[in-house]
Amino acid sequence: MTNELGKIAILGSGETSPNLVGVHRELLEGEASSNCFMIDSPFGFQENADQLVEKIQDFYKTSLNIEINLASFRKIEELNSKSFFKTIQLLESASFIFAGPGSPSYASKLWSGNQIQSILLKHLSEGKNALFASAAATTLGENTLPVYEIYKVGKDPFWEEGLNILNAYELSCSIVPHFNNKEGGNHDTSYSYVGKNRMEKLLKQSYSNILGIDEHTALVISGKEGLFRVQGLGKLTVINKKGIHEFDNGTTEDLTILQDLLKSDKKSELEIHMDEQDKQHGFVVEDTDWVEDLEINESQDTNYLKQIAKLEIEVEKNKLNNKRFSKIVEELISLRGKLREEKNYELSDTIRNILESCNLQIEDSGEDIKWSILD
C-alpha cells in the first residue's frame, strides 16, 4: 500500500547545492545522526571515492548538522563478504539513506538482484525516508540508462535493468535526471547527456514511460500523504504514449495524478511469476503487498561472516560511545576548574561528587587534572 511508504526525494542533480538543502532537511527531520547512512556504490570505481565520501559527509555536517555514516559497497567482488554483510546490517538499521553521483550502470550492477535492492524497498515500506540524486536516481525505475556507455563510449542506445523501486509507489517509468542539461553547447546533451534523438531511438526499440527531472530540481514523493512535489530551479517532465506533461517548480499535486500518467501496460516480473504459481497450484492470491526474500540453507560460513560483521558494528558503536563519554567527563572537569577559579567551591565539589558517584576518580595535581575509571 502506497500510503504506508516513506518519503523519497529524487534529484536531477545538485545534491549538495544550497537551493536543495531544504529537501534534505525535510527528509531528515527528527532523525539522529547515528541512523543516517550514505551508500558509496555509484562512485565506488572512481579513484577519488574517498574524497567524495568526505565531501558529502562535510555537506551534511556543515549544512544540516548531521554526521552521516558510510555504508560502503564499492566492488561486485565484495558481494557476500564480511564487509558486504556489515553494510547490509547498517542499512537495515538506517532511518535515512542517501545515494548520489557516479555511474548509473555501475550502481545498478552492484545493487540489482541482491539484498541491497530488497533493503531499499523494505526501508521505504517501513515508512522511512531516502534521497537519491543523479546517478543513483537513474537506477530507481524499471530501466537504468547507461549514460557513460552511450554518451562517452558511443554504444547504440540501450537500457539496463533498473531496481524498479518506484513500482512500490505504483509508478511505471524510467528516470532521467539531468533532463535539461545544456553542457554540450553545440550538441544536444539533454536527457542526461544522451540527447533527444538517441532517447527517441531507444524508446522506439524498447518503450518506457519517462520521468525527467531537471538539474538542481527535486521530485519529492510522500506515500503517507499521497502527494508529490517539485522543488528547485527546474521542472518535472513526464513522457508517456499520450504526450508530454510538465510540472513546474513549486507544484504540489495528488500522487494519483502521477500514477495515472505513469501506468504500466505490462505485467511486472513479480506478477508474471505469481500468475504462473497460481496456475500450477490452483489458487489465487488476493493481495500481496510485499514478498520477502527467503534465505534457505544458508551456509555456515555465511552465518559466521554475518556474526563477525555484527560484532564489528557493536565494537565501533562502543568506541563512539567511549569518545562521547570522555568528552562529557572532560567538559565537566573543565567546568569544575572554572568554578574553582571563581571560588565557587560548593558547585565545583558537587561536580566532583557526581563524577565520583559514577566510579570516576579525579586527581588534582596543579594545572593538570587527570581522571580514571575505578574498577
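Above is the first protein from milestone M3; the second protein from the same milestone is given next.
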Amino acid sequence: MKKRYSISKEQCTCGISELYDNVAKIMGVSDLSKVVYDCRKLSITKKVLDCLYEFYRSENQSDETITTCMLLYGPKADLDGDGYEVEVEDVFITKGV
C-alpha cells in the first residue's frame, strides 16, 4: 500500500538522510534511533528533488556529484504533482537491529 504525504519546503531542503528522517516524522515515527530506510520505496515530486539539489549546491557540490548520490541513495523523483509531496510504500521504514 502506498501513502502520499505533503512535506514543507523547509523539511526537504536538506540532505537525503535528513529527508528520510523528516518523512518518517511525518508518518508518525517518534524514535528514529534504530530506523532503517529503503530508498527504493520512496517517490518524490520534482519540487522536492529541486530542494535536495538546492541544499547540496549550497554545500558546494557539483550537479554530477548530486546526481550520482541521488542515483545511489536517493528516492525516485517520479511522482506526479506540482507541490512538495512524497509517496511512501509500506516497507520504506523498517526497524534496525
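Note on the second protein: The helical segments are 9-12, 16-26, 46-58, 63-73.
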